[in-house]
TrEMBL record:
The chain crosses the membrane at residues 42-70, 82-100, 120-145, 166-188. It comes from the Eukaryota. It comes from Magallana gigas (Pacific oyster). Keywords: Membrane, Transmembrane, Transmembrane helix. The keyword Membrane applies. This is Transmembrane protein 272. The keyword Transmembrane applies.
């Protein structure tokens, strides 16, 4: 009886975990097709989050590595390698800080309203990191794009030379930010239009 009582007294699994979500989908699904569809969506979302996490940490690391390797090989603009190193280092700290905060939040329990409110120190750190990264990104734009017409791959052009790997990496990673921002805006507008059309048809 003591073992049965202990099992009954155990709290149910958190629905925020993958196991909890699958168990909830089993209870809420009307048939096996709906259940497998929900599970496939959960697994896809989990894999997608893992890929995004790897990318979020891999890009800052690549920034540091490339900036350090070609730190003295960009006389065209000596701040381009420095821009990569600093943005990579601050990006890693910012992302790791956010991951640790979420892990601590999940351990303390996410159902409580108090846990959903970030502390003053956390809010100040997030604000400072965000403002610095934005300002540093703008500075990197100036250093990279303002020298695009003068850039030369030929080392004999001493004043205009910047190693192609360093410059092209900085150029395309910076440009990718604008591409992803534009794609996000377009997808958001399309989703809003589709939702509006669907609501009109339902009415």
């Amino acid at each position: 009886m003591s073992e049965e009582k202990q099992i009954l007294d155990e709290p149910p699994p958190s629905y925020e975990s993958l196991y909890g979500k699958i168990k909830r989908a089993k209870v809420e699904s009307d048939n096996n097709v709906g259940f497998f569809r929900t599970v496939a969506g959960l697994l896809f979302a989990s894999v997608g989050c893992t890929i995004c996490l790897v990318m979020v940490l891999a890009i800052p690391v690549a920034n540091i590595v490339i900036g350090a390797l070609y730190r003295d090989k960009c006389p065209l603009e000596r701040f381009i390698p420095i821009y990569l190193i600093v943005s990579g280092a601050v990006g890693i700290v910012y992302n790791v800080f956010g991951i640790l905060r979420k892990l601590a939040k999940s351990r303390n329990g996410e159902g409580e309203e108090e846990e959903d409110r970030p502390g003053v120190f956390t809010s100040i750190c997030n604000c400072l990191f965000g403002c610095f990264l934005f300002a540093w990104f703008i500075a990197g734009n100036v250093w990279i794009y303002s020298n695009y017409d003068d850039w030369s791959k030929d080392p004999s052009h001493v004043d205009k030379y910047c190693h192609p790997t360093c410059y092209l990496y900085a150029f395309w990673t910076t440009t990718a930010v604008y591409i992803m921002t534009g794609a996000t805006i377009v997808l958001g507008c399309c989703s809003a239009c589709i939702a509006a059309c669907c609501s009109c048809f339902q009415d």
